[in-house]
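In the laboratory, one determines a bound structure by crystallizing the protein with its ligand and collecting diffraction data. In a computational setting the workflow is compressed into a single prediction: the sequence and the ligand go in, and a structural description comes out. We illustrate the idea with adenosine-5'-diphosphate.
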Amino acid sequence: APRIELREVRFTYPGRAPALGGVSFEVPAGRQTAVVGLSGAGKSTLFALLQRFYEPESGTILVDGTDIATYSRAEVRRRIAYVEQDAPALDGTIGDNLRYAEPAAAPDDIEQVLRTTRLDGLVGRLELGLDTQVGPRGVTLSGGERQRLAIARALLRKPTVLLLDEATAQLDARNEQALREAIDRASEHCTVLVIAHRLSTVTEAEQIVLLENGRVRAAGTHATLVETD
Ligand code: ADP
Ligand code: ADP
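The predicted complex, in structure-token form:
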């Protein structure tokens, strides 16, 4: 079964035209899929439904073959992680941020997510004991580093799906590259669904879903979508 499957998902805010007018697509496991669309296309609404902030008015969202409407709130939270666009960091070290998020995390797992998100270099030569108290304080991190830290926090929960709001627009080239690498590596551990605003920023995604006015206008690889555009 695909990791995520949407079947004719409809959602309408009161008194508005449908925000999602029957959206269907599949997200294969262990891949990176991007949802691309202009402002108002329905991307945020889609993410809200995937986290069960709202329920679809009709249609079904399946994760690993199970309708998420049957998942408990705790199950949804455990399986589906979300990293917002301007993810804040707590005042404290990178280690503090990770431990607050997941107090029971094993040191090996902390080390792993730091490597995945390329924050290991920042934490520095702390060896495997990871006495992160002496690491850089969260508040001094750049925007790109904060987003990578938010991805690290999310990955510590070992979600099956990572929802990510792309925030590369404000990043310099080096931070953008580091974030892309972090997302690529994260997609080896879980299925990543990225919201993107422009087709040009998601050339690496294995699948792109183009949303327009609450409908899937096209789906495919970057190459096929650019051809048909
Ligand atoms: P973007 O997806 O580019 O970040 P937003 O999601 O902030 O943009 O807004 C997309 C559209 O949704 C805009 O036209 C905005 O007016 C509308 N919108 C967002 N939130 C609300 C709301 N609470 N009530 C009505 N319209 C909203
Ligand atoms: P995107 O994330 O792609 O910008 P949204 O999902 O935010 O798109 O918006 C889809 C449609 O739903 C838009 O027409 C927007 O105006 C409307 N919308 C979004 N949020 C709200 C809201 N809270 N109340 C009413 N309308 C909303």
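The first strand starts at residue 4 and ends at 11. Keep in mind that any predicted model is a hypothesis to be tested, not a measurement.
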